[in-house]
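Schema walk-through. Below, the input block comes first and the output block second. Nothing else is stored per chain. Lengths vary across the set, and this one has 273 residues.
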Amino acid sequence: MPSLEDLERMMGMLREILFPGYFGPPDIHPDTMHYAIGARLDRVRLLLCEQIRRGYCFACSEQGQESLDPCPSCEARASELTRTFLLRLPRIRQLLRTDVEAAFEGDPAARSMGETIFCYPSVRAMINHRVAHELFLLGIPLIPRIISELAHSQTGIDIHPGARIGERFFMDHGTGIVIGETCIIGTGVRLYQGVTLGAKSFPKDNEGRPVKGIARHPVLGDRVIVYAGATILGRIEIGAGAVIRGNAWVTLPVPSGVVWPPVEDEMSREGGS
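--- output ---
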């Protein structure tokens, strides 16, 4: 079985690698930074390789192929996938930098980008998501979900590792946000607390079981803003620059650049009540 404790320890070291000085030893110096990062990378390599191997062995046992002996195939795959993932860390770092900038620019209460790194649950959740998403894209079983759920338990933000999220993503406050597996989110999107990007229904096969892997969650274009408590369900598109008002229930596409629901719709509802 994979180890939750080892994966949590690994994520702590990845935070130190991605944001040296903000996490881990506070007295890290530019002259020695590359040595410190190299040492942590080697420890991450060992931890991740072992956990990926265990994830594959767990998947094998779930399929009735359990064995007491280590599987050479699982070990070889784990080693190669670990190397591939580590080569993607610079890209993850770049994406996270844009998320930090979006948090600083999107919240007038933020006094510095360092404050958003230290204090904002959006940044903490996105560190885990950016890591988990890359592992998900590599086809690694189980481990991405565990990493996502670690962030969920720490921040109250639930993001499936399969969700595709563009640059400059910010979740203001963040508590209670849910983002489904097949969501696609563009650049510069902002969500507020309590937002759900979910599925409207679950198609079933001939035996009544949910069909796995189909696109069933919303697509949000660039610069979309979704205010607190809104629920968007199904494979619908929210056009670029659209604004979804608080507590809205949305199951149909929304055109680009509009506020939804329109103000006049709300006024007519109030007048008829």
